[in-house]
Amino acid sequence: MQIPVITIDGPSGAGKGTVSRAVANILHWHYLDSGSIYRSLAIAALDAGIPLENRAEVCRIAEEMQLEFDCSAELQVKLNGINITPKLAGETTGNAASIIAAFPEVRQVLLQKQKDFQQLPGLVADGRDMGSVVFPDAEFKVYLTAGSRERALRRYKQLIEKGIDANLDQITREIEERDLRDSARATAPLTVPAGALYIDSSSLSIQEVIDRVINLVR
Ligand SMILES: Nc1ncnc2c1ncn2[C@@H]1O[C@H](COP(=O)(O)OP(=O)(O)O)[C@@H](O)[C@H]1O
Ligand SMILES: Nc1ccn([C@@H]2O[C@H](COP(=O)(O)OP(=O)(O)O)[C@@H](O)[C@H]2O)c(=O)n1
């Protein structure tokens, strides 16, 4: 029997994490935050003093790192036994993740770690290439987006709420740079997967987006 998967791909700040967690909770399915794997690798490389451009060393770290995820409430991540959750959220980590995510050999090493999340009774997987590369046979595919200024504003508010210092113009610039890098890379670029439900959440509430995804499944 094929274990059901809902993939939710899209750019930064579109609401993927928020919506994926809610849908996983409603359905009692597992949740994969694939971006947190790339973020964890970026932290591991930076902590080890490895320049992000050093593909071979970043790849070695990807092979060696041990990640433990606890998704029972807010996502908690341990890297080689150490809790790195507080470091995961910042935009510096997101931008570093986007740099190393462009290396095909790194993506190859991380592929199986992501596939392993496909467990009964089902999986909600959030990222950039969930529907196109990691779970191409997924039964349900969603592409979630919103205008870049709206996404930057959401991210700004989210960071301020977490007590993290933020600047709206800088976030807007960085989000646009990251969109371009994630969409233009040769391997597993951000793309609308074939057959995906396209949702522009610019003027939708979080609940309205959740309802659309749940309607797709039911
Ligand atoms: N439809 C929406 N309307 C308003 N705010 C939203 C909406 N969807 C998500 N948000 C808020 O935007 C921020 C970024 O959402 P998040 O789920 O982290 O995005 P992503 O995982 O796509 O980067 C969060 O603070 C979230 O509450
Ligand atoms: N499936 C994925 C998930 C993330 N990523 C990369 O990791 C970065 C951080 O992803 P994220 O999902 O945590 O970022 P946000 O959308 O939450 O800002 C992205 O900008 C991508 O470059 C990827 O390449 N493939």
Automatic annotation (TrEMBL):
InterPro entries named among the record's database cross-references: Cytidylate_kin, Cytidylate_kinase_dom, P-loop_NTPase
Protein keywords: ATP-binding, Cytoplasm, Kinase, Nucleotide-binding, Transferase
UniProt EC number: 2.7.4.25
Places the protein is found: Cytoplasm
Pfam families named in the record: Cytidylate_kin
GO BP annotations listed: pyrimidine nucleotide metabolic process
Reactions the enzyme catalyzes: dCMP + ATP = dCDP + ADP; CMP + ATP = CDP + ADP
Highest taxon of source: Bacteria
Binding of ATP, residues: G10, P11, S12, G13, A14, G15, K16, G17, T18
Any one Gene Ontology molecular-function term assigned to this protein's record: ATP binding
Main localization (coarse): cytoplasm
GO cellular component annotations of the record: cytoplasm
Domain Cytidylate kinase as annotated: residue spans: 6-217
Keyword Transferase appears in the UniProt entry: yes
Family statement drawn from the similarity comment of this UniProt entry: Belongs to the cytidylate kinase family. Type 1 subfamily.
HAMAP family, per the entry: Cytidyl_kinase_type1
Name used for this protein in its record: Cytidylate kinase
Protein's organism: Methylomonas paludis
Gene responsible for this protein: cmk
